[in-house]
Design a protein that fits this description.
heterodimer; A: alpha/beta; Rossmann fold; eight-stranded mixed β-sheet; four-stranded antiparallel β-sheet; 12 strands; 36% helix; B: alpha/beta; 10 helices
């Protein structure tokens, strides 16, 4: 059974301009231990999708559709059950680790109290485990970290503490919302390596929200690309890079500057990303799509599963070859599926 | 740096310290530590570094938002006084303008786009009335906005449009140098590409000099001819962009390059990258 299944999740938020649709029917599934990236630009609904799982969407939002966690609909749980799910089954890592920690508590107290509350461990046992956890997330000076207040630690250190707390209860599902966006690039690399390693070690599934297609490609088994409140394509990172099936995915890959080579002018997607409530019938991307045909403005494309690929584009079939044509030299750089290039331990074991 | 062309910026031995913390924990941070740099007229120099590298302090000293503790800045042939008078500050603003990461923070949300740009035209070039309105139209056209945007408030514009307004406003002063401090970092990928192309066109059309401050090596490759890499207030490497990115010499440059996600990349634990364990 899937750890997580979203079935036609819609979200409408009342505003002074009337109801605003933020999600237009998101469906996805997550197998045990699988990492799925949710990639999109601002307003695409990636964070909002995540929030429907924890039921932390904005007050007043109307959500329809089902969110199944191990087969149980999170949306219909009572208060006590919801609390239990949030404590045991799901862990969340957000962009700002400072928001996750109490600023007046030392790290030791934050971790130990969490362990005592959630698992009913004794203080000594919880302290021992907290120290183990910090060592696992690569903190060299555990004593010093345990004795520190959040403001004394760097963002990268704090995010490690949050990861340690998240894996402590060995949840089935990890929700990560831009966990490294606020960090420096070198720190991002370290924190992602730790998050990836811990996730695999504990066999957790992960829903990973990011605007960075390359970052998602590095740590996810599959990637769902969102545009205007709906999924336009789901594929493995290798498939996405070698042969994207949705025009938006192709353009997203091309418009990012390439670290390896300069181009005379970057390929540009005209206009700006739109929100779900700005879609006026037909394909949401049609107005910005260089491949749009007249029918794209009238007919609304469905998410079609075909031969291992999932795409929402009326012209997906006819465009497949054209979209796969490599514009830059990036397709060559993609190595095998992420599972093959796992933690250091795995690679060594195979070698 | 090129010595044949005229240098529009010459910095030598620049230093800046900040005191941080209180009581026993009080200490001095060297935001800039003996930084020397020359920027050739009409070139684009990228300044790369992470937080605490001093790249933003450097920019703020150049445009006069901060004063240096030591060293010298020569801008367009004129030495910049450490405590400039009003007239000198005005003159400097005509030489050098800055675009920040967050356009929201640099635009007054109660003033229309037109008012924001007119203010700069009046202050630096005494252009008012119909002439000012005409120039606003030209500037908006150059940054890819429509005439109707002149009457908009910043809050009615998208992030990419706001950043275009910030660029138009900086261009209104007709500077020789544009300092771009993470100016495309907050933009969506599809909008970032538009603004990067726009900046390249403007530089060519106006023969501007750019100081492009960024943490993003992909952006560096795309926009700049030369690059300096900064770490903890010092320049650790400099050279042509292709040379530095393809054959980095300093270990920190290698680390920066290897940390940037790209096809085939995997996140790695690298010893010593996260040296700022506990901020004492």
């Amino acid at each position: 059974m899937n750890v997580l299944e979203l079935d036609d999740v819609r979200l409408d938020l009342p505003s002074k301009h009337g109801d605003r649709t933020l999600l237009r029917g998101v469906s996805l599934s997550l197998a045990p231990g699988e990492a799925l990236g949710l990639v999109g630009e601002s307003g695409s609904g990636k964070s909002m999708t995540l929030r429907t799982v924890l039921r932390t969407e904005p007050a007043g939002a109307r959500v329809t559709g089902r969110v199944l966690l191990d087969g149980r609909d999170v949306r219909t749980l009572g208060a006590a059950d919801l609390r239990r799910v949030r404590a045991d089954a799901i862990a969340m890592i957000s962009q700002n680790p400072r928001a996750a920690l109490n600023p007046v508590l030392r790290v030791a107290r934050f971790l130990v109290e969490g362990l005592c509350d959630a698992r009913g461990e004794s203080r000594e046992a919880a302290t021992r485990r907290a120290r183990d956890l910090l060592a696992q997330v690569g903190i060299a000076d555990v004593d010093r970290c345990m004795a520190s207040y959040p403001h004394q630690l760097s963002g990268g250190m704090l995010q490690r503490v949050v990861i340690a707390a998240a894996v402590a209860s060995a949840p089935r599902l990890l929700l990560a919302d831009e966990p490294t966006t606020a960090l420096d690039v070198t720190t991002q690399s370290e924190v992602m390596a730790i998050l990836d390693g811990q996730r695999r070690e504990h066999g957790m599934a992960m829903l990973f929200v990011t605007h960075d297609l390359e970052l998602a490609s590095a740590v996810c088994d599959r990637i769902a690309v969102l545009y205007a409140g709906e999924i336009v394509e789901i594929a493995t990172p290798a498939q996405l890079h070698a042969a994207p099936r949705h025009p938006y995915t192709r353009l997203l890959l091309d418009s990012r500057p390439n670290i390896a080579a300069r181009v005379p002018a970057l390929p540009v997607i005209p206009g700006r990303p739109i929100a779900a409530y700005e879609v006026e019938g037909g394909c949401a991307f049609a107005a910005r799509c260089p491949w749009a045909a007249p029918r794209c403005e009238r007919e609304e494309p469905a998410l079609v599963h075909d031969a291992g690929r999932t795409t929402r584009c009326l012209r997906a079939g006819e465009l497949a070859d054209e979209l796969a044509g490599a514009p830059a030299d990036d397709a060559a750089g993609v190595s095998g599926a992420p599972a093959e290039t796992g933690r250091d331990g795995e690679t060594e074991a195979r070698a | 740096m090129s010595t044949t062309a005229e240098n529009v910026i010459e910095i030598s031995g620049l230093s800046k310290q900040f005191a941080v913390g209180r009581g026993k924990r009080r200490r001095t941070v060297h935001a800039l530590d003996d930084v020397s740099l020359a920027v050739a007229d009409g070139s684009c120099l990228a300044v790369v570094g992470e937080s605490g590298s001093g790249k933003t302090t450097l920019a703020r000293i150049l445009v006069g938002l901060e004063s240096a503790d030591g060293g010298e800045v020569v801008l367009a042939g004129r030495p910049v006084a450490r405590r400039p008078r009003r007239a000198e500050r005005r003159a400097r603003a005509r030489d050098i303008q800055m675009v920040f990461q967050d356009p929201n923070g640099s635009l007054n949300r109660r003033r229309t786009v037109e008012a924001a740009i007119k203010e700069v035209l009046a202050a630096h070039h005494r252009v008012t009335g119909d002439e000012a309105r005409r120039r606003v139209g030209e500037l908006l056209d150059q940054v890819g906005l429509r005439p109707a945007h002149a009457r908009a408030l910043p809050g009615e514009l998208s992030g990419g449009q706001q950043q275009r307004v910030a660029i138009a406003r900086a261009l209104a002063a007709e500077p020789r140098v544009l300092v771009l401090d993470e100016a495309v970092a907050a933009l969506d990928v599809s909008v970032q590409a538009q603004v990067l192309n726009l900046l390249a066109e403007i530089r060519q059309a106006r023969r501007l000099t750019y100081l492009f401050i960024t943490h993003d090596l992909s952006v560096v490759r795309q926009v700049s001819e030369e690059v300096v890499v900064m770490r903890q207030g010092r320049i650790v490497e400099r050279g042509s962009t292709d040379e530095v990115l393809d054959r980095p010499r300093h270990a920190y440059t290698v680390l920066l390059r290897d940390s940037a996600p790209r096809p085939g990349w995997r996140p790695r634990l690298s010893t010593g990258a996260d040296a700022r364990e506990v901020e004492a």
